[in-house]
Write a structure and sequence with these properties.
113 residues; mainly alpha; Arc Repressor Mutant, subunit A; 2 domains; 2 strands; 58% helix; 12% strand
Length: 113
């Protein structure tokens, strides 16, 4: 016959205010996270392809992982960049290993066995 007692009016108001503050804080935090993600995506897609070519020009072969580690970007963006360079015929796809493509510069394509 025990159980929790009914809170007083002031206790109920305090609990309500507390939950409202927590919800507002969570919403603000989610909003900040989405803004940060959008800013990061925007900056990554604006990478200058000439700078990318300069960075990877010394490599014999280029993989998405190598490009991502060189530029400190995620692998999905590295794949998009390599696909863009490949569509411009600046890189040629040499092959793939377990679904991971390997690219070379178009001029080097004939020199690599």
């Amino acid at each position: 016959m025990g159980g929790k007692k009914k809170p007083t009016i002031s206790q109920a108001e305090k609990a309500l205010r507390k939950t409202q503050m927590q919800e507002a804080g969570e919403r603000a935090k989610k909003r900040k996270e989405t803004e940060n993600r959008e800013k990061a995506r925007w900056s990554v897609t604006q990478i200058d392809l000439e700078k990318v070519k300069e960075k990877i020009s010394s490599l014999k072969v280029v993989t998405p992982f190598e490009l991502a580690s060189q530029l400190s970007i995620n692998i999905g963006e590295a794949k998009r960049i390599l696909n863009e360079l490949s569509s411009r015929r600046e890189l040629a796809r040499l092959g793939a290993f377990n679904g991971h493509p390997v690219y070379v510069f178009s001029k080097q394509e004939q020199t690599i066995p």
